């Protein structure tokens, strides 16, 4: 039986927590000696590895034009119909369609004689110089009084008739350059100018009639030819141009492109646009000659994104 008053040697114990302190200090010392993880910037090689690949162009001045293409028909500036002044038989036609005639040249003769009555022949002459464009009757035909027997046109003086959409009228005047292409002469481009425009607009088509004239005559051009006219609305001889897809339009941030600096970092740049035509856009303000603009991959970068250049073009 144990005596409650007696002390047994070695039976007293220290708290467990106090006993673990030396072990904790030892562990911390080991960790301090080995060193913890360090936060360092990745090397430049790693930055390039994770950079966004883009394609850029280097801005260089180039000519750019805004224009309007519309069809037109070629017709004589003036033409006349020649009428018979008597009724009778058309005896002969000394001319053919396409012949060039001069004023007072003989075109036809009509015999007004009737059964039992003989009359002198009636001669029909050209009232103007030009080209015979139509002879509706043949020799032997019966001609009534005031029937047109020929049509003569001044083919050296041709006009082009067309209709211009009303939204372009404020940008067009008589000094506006016009280029003309003909299906009949596909390798050539002719110059023309606007001669007159109608004071009235067609309320249905919202167009205005216009007449153009060639700056230089060419006998190969004939009335009735189909023409394709190009009205030059604006010309910029030294425009900074990018593909339209390179321009980003945002309802809050406005219109901008991404430029790449010498460190191959992309930065957002607000721009003002000029001419937009044929998939191209003129950057009128916001960039300078020699800067590099992203034209592919611009939707995958943001301000400050490192980039890798896939290919560099000159524009």
TrEMBL record:
Similarity remark: Belongs to the membrane fusion protein (MFP) (TC 8.A.1) family.
Cited InterPro entries: Beta-barrel_RND_2, MdtA-like_BSH, RND_pump_MFP, YknX-like_C
CusB-like beta-barrel domain sequence ranges: 161-231
Single annotated GO MF: efflux transmembrane transporter activity
Record-annotated YknX-like C-terminal permuted SH3-like domain positions: 239-308
Cellular component per GO, a single term: efflux pump complex
Limits of the Multidrug resistance protein MdtA-like barrel-sandwich hybrid domain: 79-145
Descriptive protein name: RND family efflux transporter, MFP subunit
Pfam family, one: YknX_C
PROSITE patterns: PROKAR_LIPOPROTEIN (PS51257)
Domain of life of the native organism: Bacteria
């Amino acid at each position: 039986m144990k005596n409650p008053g007696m002390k047994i040697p070695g039976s007293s114990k220290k708290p467990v927590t106090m006993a673990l302190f030396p072990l904790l200090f030892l562990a911390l010392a080991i960790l301090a000696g080995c060193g913890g993880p360090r936060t360092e910037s990745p090397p430049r090689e790693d930055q390039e590895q994770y950079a966004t690949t883009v394609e850029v162009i280097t801005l260089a001045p180039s000519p750019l034009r805004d224009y309007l293409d519309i069809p037109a028909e070629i017709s004589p500036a003036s033409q006349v119909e020649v009428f018979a002044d008597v009724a009778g038989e058309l005896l002969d036609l000394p001319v053919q369609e396409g012949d060039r005639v001069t004023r007072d040249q003989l075109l036809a003769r009509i015999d007004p004689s009737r059964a039992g009555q003989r009359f002198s022949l009636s001669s029909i002459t050209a009232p103007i110089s030009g080209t015979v464009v139509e002879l509706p009757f043949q020799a032997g035909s019966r001609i009534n009084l005031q029937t047109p027997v020929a049509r003569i046109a001044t083919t050296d003086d041709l006009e082009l008739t067309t209709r211009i959409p009303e939204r372009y009228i404020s940008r067009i005047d008589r000094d506006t350059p016009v280029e003309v292409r003909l299906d009949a002469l596909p390798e050539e481009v002719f110059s023309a100018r606007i001669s007159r425009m109608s004071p009235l607009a067609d309320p249905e088509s919202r167009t205005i009639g216009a007449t153009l004239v060639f700056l230089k005559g060419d006998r190969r051009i004939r009335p009735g030819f189909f023409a394709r006219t190009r009205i030059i609305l604006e010309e910029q001889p030294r425009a900074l141009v990018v593909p339209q897809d390179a321009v980003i339009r945002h309802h809050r941030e406005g219109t901008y492109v991404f430029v790449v600096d010498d460190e191959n970092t992309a930065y957002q740049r607000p721009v003002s646009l000029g001419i937009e035509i044929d998939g191209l856009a003129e950057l009128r303000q916001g960039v300078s000659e020699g800067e590099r603009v992203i034209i592919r991959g611009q939707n995958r970068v943001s301000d400050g994104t490192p980039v890798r250049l896939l290919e560099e073009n000159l524009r």
